[in-house]
UniProtKB/TrEMBL annotation, chain A:
It comes from the Bacteria. InterPro entries: Arrestin-like_C, Ig_E-set. It comes from Rosistilla carotiformis. The keyword Electron transport does not apply. The chain crosses the membrane at residues 137-156, 162-180. The keyword Cell cycle does not apply. SUPFAM superfamilies: E set domains. Keywords: Membrane, Transmembrane, Transmembrane helix. This is Arrestin-like N-terminal domain-containing protein.
Automatic annotation (TrEMBL), chain B:
It comes from the Bacteria. This is Uncharacterized protein.
Length: 461, 201
């Protein structure tokens, strides 16, 4: 039986997080007995769940506490962790991706209590994963290397008569396949080119592709069949237990049956268009769990092997999607966060009073105080203070002080906390006149003096 | 937390998806205390025999979790035999795939052995000087035990305090009628059942 229980309280449990966001909250520890904790660790990251083997990634972890908890006590530890912007939160049939804050208490000789809290992530960009590698293989250098290796392999086979026993049937099989699947269709159709207008698409966007055929003589065809599929592909187990689970998320395409003949000595251009679904099932490649988008095209030739080709594509998120999702979160109201998601580059709204309250709640824990100070360091804030007296520079002040400025001792108003203020020379008179009276102005938190227990503030000129 | 598809059931996720190795041990309903005791004696080998999906690997992982010096290795099908580590005990999953020569060397090492296998290896183990204990996994499966296994998996996916879905013994007996002792097949069906309940499946 665990001697303590953990709970995670997120500051904004229903917020949509995106790149550059940080997730903040509190780990609440309730001890049932005296517990020696080797480390209360908190980490943020993502994990898949569903039919496939678990793929996961921890973005950041840190130790919030080490020491003893007494029976019956409740402790609260603040955390502030980065958010991974990829992969986005996704819930499908065989594959789900969730982002979590995990907390674990390492208790010697006991069952380690664990707790996880999911949070929702939307992405505005995707890494270039999952795209077909066909394009890269066609690069001249790699193509050349592949050809050389093939020639070396064939020579090696020819020079070893014993290998002919294996080589001949393999060669014949491969030759038959190539002859029927590649050579014969191409011989008839001549130059065929299938291209996508772009490699990356967004949900709801129109996918455009073009098929160009240039036969040497008139070729009768039955139809051109174009299919676009999005599939969840999850692998579970390994070895004899290995299974691949596939679930088709989307199937669309076009049947071109109005062209019955491809005219000879003339290029026929067949434009293909399809509206992609508006669902955020983006191309993902997470190891055993993937979402793959593929387009296939087939020219159905009567009494002749069909010509086939396929190209992978990427369904990627868009910035508009992130904005729309954020607006939806606000509109929902009720239990849903009314805080808009901060976009990349925007700073979250941090007030001086809220920061002071946070510092005061962990004032006995130097490390926690430093963490909060580091998080808000140099952020411009509206300060409300009571200056008390001017002080001479001390060695500990030199880092933050203005070269020609002054150091003033004072306190904050609500909550009350002793502070050291570094003021520029231009404000020296103003501070002298404001002694023991409230003063408001702009400045920032620059540090915490643990020796004197004073918050250090730099006042802006 | 309403955005979570299983939040209405007070669950973090579908409880019958794949688990991490740690979670698999947490969800296991196996009593390995007897096995751990037997492994204290020298030259002891335990072999767990069963078809796929009956719980051989779960037994091996549960023993490994209780023995700090243990080493676990899984032998994949149609792939090269991985290096066999040293451990006390040494746990080998799908040991019937071990090449004969390697098997002879491993059995000659001595020390505790825990094997997951489809074939009875008592003969070669005894010839190598081992005292062998054989467990036929899945044969003693009851509806009560199956219900406990399934409910423990649901418990692992709990979102917050409060009621969560439960599998009754009657339902467990129904599943056993359909799939026998193939727990993996039961879990696959339950995965689909849970997905259907949230409208994805």
């Amino acid at each position: 039986m665990a001697k303590c229980s953990l709970a995670i309280e997120l500051d904004e449990p229903d917020r949509l997080y995106t790149s550059n966001d940080r997730i903040r909250g509190t780990v609440v520890v309730r001890a049932d007995d005296d517990v020696q904790c080797k480390g209360l660790k908190v980490r943020s990251g993502w994990a898949t769940h569903g039919r496939g083997n678990i793929d996961s990634h921890d973005l950041h972890s840190e130790v919030l506490f080490q020491g003893q908890w007494r029976s019956g006590e409740e402790h609260r530890y603040r955390f502030d962790l980065p958010v991974s912007s990829w992969p986005p939160t996704y819930h499908g049939r065989f594959l789900s991706v969730d982002h979590y804050v995990h907390a674990t208490a390492d208790i010697p000789w006991a069952f380690d209590p664990k707790e996880s809290r999911p949070y929702q992530v939307v992405s505005s960009t995707a890494p270039n994963a999952g795209l077909v590698e066909k394009n890269t293989v066609t690069s001249p250098v790699i193509g050349g290397i592949v050809k050389i290796l093939l020639v070396v392999f064939v020579l090696f086979m020819l020079l070893n008569p014993m290998l002919w026993i294996f080589g001949i049937p393999i060669g014949i099989g491969a030759g038959i396949w190539w002859f029927f699947k590649k050579y014969l269709p191409k011989k008839l159709l001549g130059q065929v080119e299938y291209t996508l207008d772009q490699e990356s698409f967004q949900p709801g966007e129109t996918l455009r592709a073009t098929l160009r055929v240039h036969p040497q003589k008139d070729i009768p065809i039955n139809s051109v069949i174009w299919t676009v599929t999005g599939t969840e592909v999850c692998v579970s187990g390994s070895g004899s237990n290995r299974r691949t689970h596939r679930h088709e998320l989307f199937r669309g395409g076009k049947l071109v049956d109005d062209i019955r003949t491809l005219p000879g000595n003339k290029e026929t251009r067949i434009p293909l268009e399809l509206e992609l679904p508006n669902e955020p099932c983006f191309t993902m490649n997470l190891g055993s769990n993937q979402i793959l988008w593929e387009t296939k095209i087939c020219i159905d030739i009567p009494r002749w092997p069909d010509w086939n080709d396929s190209l992978a594509m990427q369904l990627a998120p868009s910035k508009e999607l992130v904005q729309a999702a954020s607006v939806e979160t606000i509109d929902n109201g009720g239990s849903v966060s009314t805080q808009p998601t901060t976009t990349a580059g925007d700073e979250p709204d941090v007030t001086f009073a809220a920061t002071l309250e946070m510092i005061q709640s962990v004032i006995d824990d130097d490390r926690q105080v430093d963490r909060i100070v580091d998080a808000v360091r140099d952020l411009p804030m509206q300060l409300n203070l009571i200056p008390q007296r001017r002080e001479l520079y001390s060695s500990s002040s030199k880092t933050h002080a203005y070269p020609d400025g002054h150091v003033v001792i004072g306190q904050t108003i609500d909550p009350v906390m002793p502070v050291t203020m570094f003021i520029p020379r231009s404000l020296a008179d103003e501070f002298d006149q404001a002694t023991d009276r409230p003063w408001s102005g702009e400045g920032s938190i620059v540090g915490y003096d643990h020796r004197q227990n004073r918050l250090q503030l730099r006042i802006e000129p | 937390m309403d955005w979570q598809p299983f939040a209405a059931m007070n669950l973090l996720r579908n409880p019958f998806g794949e688990l991490t190795r740690d979670d698999r041990v947490r969800a296991a309903v196996v009593d390995v205390a007897d096995c751990i005791d037997r492994l204290q004696q020298p030259q002891t080998a335990l072999q767990f025999i069963a078809d796929c999906g009956r719980g051989k690997t779960t037994h091996l992982l549960s023993i490994a979790a209780q023995a700090p010096a243990a080493a676990y290795v899984y032998l994949p099908e149609d792939e090269r035999c991985p290096p066999i580590p040293h451990g006390q005990p040494l746990l080998i999953d799908e040991v019937q795939r071990l090449p004969w020569l390697v098997r002879r060397r491993v059995f000659a090492r001595g020390g505790g052995l825990v094997l997951g296998t489809h074939v009875d290896l008592a003969g070669p183990l005894r010839r190598a000087g081992y005292r062998v204990w054989t467990y036929h996994v899945g044969q003693d499966l009851t509806a009560e035990r199956l219900a406990e296994m399934l409910n423990r998996r649901i418990q692992l996916a709990r979102l917050r305090s409060g009621p969560i879905p439960q599998i009754s013994e009657t339902e467990a007996a129904d599943w056993m009628t359909r799939h026998g002792s193939d727990i993996r097949a039961i879990e696959f069906d339950l995965y689909e059942r849970f997905q259907q309940q949230i409208g994805v499946g």
